[in-house]
Design a protein that fits this description.
Elements: H1 10-20, E1 27-34, E2 40-47, H2 60-69, H3 73-82, E3 90-93, H4 96-104, E4 108-112, E5 118-121, E6 132-133, E7 145-146, H5 151-161, E8 167-174, E9 180-187, H6 193-204, H7 214-221, E10 233-235, H8 238-246, E11 250-254, E12 260-263, H9 267-270, H10 281-310, H11 318-327, H12 335-355, H13 359-378, H14 384-399, H15 403-423, H16 425-441, E13 443-444, E14 447-448
Antiparallel strand pairs: 1-2, 2-4, 3-5, 4-5, 6-7, 8-9, 9-11, 10-12, 11-12, 13-14
Helix pairs in contact: 5-8, 10-14, 10-15, 12-13, 12-14, 12-15, 15-16
Amino acid sequence: MGKTKISSSLKENETYIRERCRNCADILIRPMRLGTVGKTDCLMVYIEVAVSNMMLDDSALGKMINHFWESSPEQIQEFMRNNSLGIADVKKFEYMEDAFAALLAGNAVFFMEGYDHAMKISSKGYPNMGVSGAETEKVLRGSREGFSDSVKTNSALVRKRLRDTRMKVEEMSIGVRSNTVIQLLYIEDLVHQELLQTVKDRLEEFEIDGILDSGMLEQLTEEAWYSPFPQYQTTERPDRAAQELLNGKIVVICDNTPYALILPSSFNGFMESSEDWYHHFEMASFLRVLRYLALMTAVLLPGLYLAVIRFHTQILPTNLLLSFAEAREGVPFSSVVELVFLELSFELIREAGVRVPGSLGNAIGIVGGLIIGQAAVSANLVSPIVVMIVALTALGGMVIPNEEFASAFRLLKYVFLFLGGYLGIFGIVLGIYLTAVHLSGLLSFGIPYLLPFVKKSPIKDVGDGILRLPFRKRRIRPLYARQEQSLRLKRREKS
């Protein structure tokens, strides 16, 4: 379908605009006559809330309109051609489709009689929440800033941390009806050009009516869409995004969402916290090891408990075995049903705590867990040891820094529960084997998901393994960056 060229006749342009904006009460079409001698007919089109009052002297629009009141038609034409006032972010359009794209992005569009182009003049844009604190990625040390719903604000927060023109910001629009703005952030001399081109091709290979959140973008562009493990890493922290850009990765920012997508991603990357590089290496290494232990607890503990008490009781000390048998005395359900019942009850409490607003949600989570657990034990529906197993499993899942990554293991936990409950230790080993096979074959934009554990070169001086290196020893970038830019840190030679 061809584009509609902007006419030099203002009346034709106004007819087209009014027809296309019929029943759009939020779009204002303001005719005006400007100039001193021989008034010039002009037209201003803008979204009411997105554009500030045109008569305000401190706005770009106000500056322009006030200037035009005292200008001759020739001077107005000169401004339209050359932007003689030097107003920032002014752009000329030849086609109506481009002008409407700018209008719907929250800018004002200016038309004039006798001139066959339109002019975009940026203003305050759509309302947004502004910069707020990070909600899901809490840290004890580090920046408190989090991404907002505005894509321009988010890229500015990253630029604030990487003040280098080698950090590039490429913009594109996705969604036939939503025209959602997507920005690709990368450092030009660090990123692999093949990876950058793959990301662009992946984003452009589909056509959809609307993208309303980065989660929709993530699901459409994932290669292994059937896997519960996310192939994009999400973050709401600009400092984390800047850190990953320095590693040679690409950050995708989607308008209307406070989360950025980092790619390619890896298993170990999901287990890192934003503050790992702000703490001393001893404590950071200890916390990383603790997270891996918590992950294994969250996935394997229910299944191992069932495997031991149903099939392999001989590995338990006699006193502990008698204690388990005494605790289960009077429970009418099998151990598998008992554990599934309590796990699902906890999932209900967790979901209710998320949906109920404010501090009431926290109260529901704590009080609900205590009441239901105590009541279930008192009624002989479950044994006390199962309540403890479920509580430890839940705590292990909450230690994982990335919520989306933790959700994959929340699902996997039920698979191991049934494997351990009906096949014993053999089922647990089989589950670990199948999970390892799946993760080994998983790629995130051509990069193995299990990096750095599957690469041939040693991890020395990179610092992307489980144990965190001292900061001064972290001299080499991970292999996401170009080989010629692998050196990250070196000592200055003394003169």
